[in-house]
Design goal:
The protein has about 180 residues and is mostly helical. Helices cover about 70% and strands about 5% of the residues. The longest helix is centred in the middle third of the chain and has 109 residues.
Length: about 180
Amino acid sequence: MLISSWTHRTAAHFSSLPTPSRRLAQIRRRKNRTRDEMFSEIMEVTRNERAHLKEWKDVVAKYRKDASEHEDRRDEHEDRRDAQDERWRQEDQRCRQEDQRWRDATLELLRDQTDILRRLVDLQEEQRGHRVPLQPMFNHPQYSPCSISSSPRRVRTRGGRLCAPTHSTPMDSPTKRLSLH
């Protein structure tokens, strides 16, 4: 019985072996399955690579956007600073022009005062017959703008002509008050 069971098993074993055409079909199926698995793996890697590439592109796009916004803010800041600098330059120029107008007006006033004093001196010279030279101010306190006495002086007229007031001290004299500095 041992032999018959062995032959029976062997026969069953051989009967279960595929025929060469079946074996070929199995190999082809395995090959196709391997190809499909390889294709699936390649596609998976490609999907992963595409995902990584998309992430990289997103990172680069975000960096470029941030850099562009930073540059825009810097440009706006520079524009504001340039506008402020221009306002300061204009204000400085306006102040310089105003200062120049004040200097010109002061010089004009001083010229007018000097002319008046010269006329007064000329009138006085005509009356006295000699000319007194104008002299600059010396030895006057710095806090005093001029050395006019506290009592007001009136210009006297003689026969309808102006004449210089008589001065009680040399300090009250117009020749002593005039400073050309």
